[in-house]
Specification:
It is a single chain. The protein has eight helices and 15 strands. By secondary structure, it is of the alpha+beta class. The strands form four sheets. Strands 3, 6, 7, 8, 9, 10 and 11 form a seven-stranded mixed β-sheet that branches. Strands 13-14-12-15 form a four-stranded antiparallel β-sheet. Strands 1-2 form a two-stranded antiparallel sheet. The protein is globular. The N and C termini lie far apart (about 45 Å). The chain binds ligand DP6. The site of ligand DP6 has 16 residues, from α4.
Amino acid sequence: MTEKFLGNKSFRVADHTVSASCPSNIALIKYWGKYPGQIPANPSISYTLNHCKTNTTMEFCAGKPFGIQIFLAGKEEVKFAEKMEQYFKNIEPFLPWILQGNYTIHTENTFPHSSGIASSASGFGAVAKCLMELDEAFSDDVRTQDPVQKASFLARLGSGSACRSLYDGLVVWGETREVAGSSDLYAVRYPDSEIHEDFKNFNDWVLLIHEGEKSVSSTAGHGLMKTNPYAERRFQEAHENFAVIRQILKSGDMDGFMKLVEHEALTLHAMMMMSDPAFILMKSGTLQVIQKIWDFRKETGLSLFFTLDAGANVHLLFPENEHSDEIKSFINANLMQHTQNKGMVKDVMNF
Ligand code: DP6
């Protein structure tokens, strides 16, 4: 093995392998609309999931010409590698050694592709964590920033929502006066002492209503907000909703929580319906499930509600408590039939 120099550090020209795992997240107040430099148009808050993760191994051969090869679940992905190369070039100002070597990346998700669970969030989260491990070995700079915060900062530049996946529990991205320390540049944990116990043990069961490709990518969707006549009002409302959710989280107001979270999901879809071109991302199964959730709630008074991302699949949210068995039976008996292939991904958030 030969000694080479990168920055001020000498290192062996050998494979340097790092691994990381990062979960996905589900937003309660949604990020939809952004400014250049991956700056969100409004603050967002999400739950980080427990089981839906991306596991990534990155082999870095320092001193070799820059290039990236990616294998997703063992299959080489050339297009994905091109995107990753562009991403690495974009973040070079923050990791000056990053283009001085060659990468082989193996990555896999613990959840199905096209499930409506954000693999870009867990994927960029895992890549950012790997890069921070390499940074430990190759950077000559004295650390001035917390490494998790820097990983969140880097993940954001890959995919906005990814920056929230670096922390457990409830996580905020985007500056809001409601959350001390919140920033447009990275995510922060929502303060634990401000969260009622009832919100700390929650289920997220994702009904796979439609498993095909999404009709609009998030990037294109964010772009549509630039010309949406309702955009400014929406951004303002998201800010207002932070004041509302803060009270809800503190007091344990479950009814308020359900109302706000569903309103956010429907607003996201309404925004897309009012875009030019317009998109309807719900399928008939999505609407049928929503109606059944509302009927169930009216009949039983139990806390089952939903959120949606930019697709047709329904995230069923409900607290884990003495009523959850009844809710689970209802889902299996009445909602599963609306899935395309009996597909459902079960996750939990407990912290
Ligand atoms: C609807 O983070 O996927 O899931 O920054 O362009 O990668 P890019 O977009 P992305 O958008 C997520 C949008 C959302 C809402 C949310 O997660 O807040």
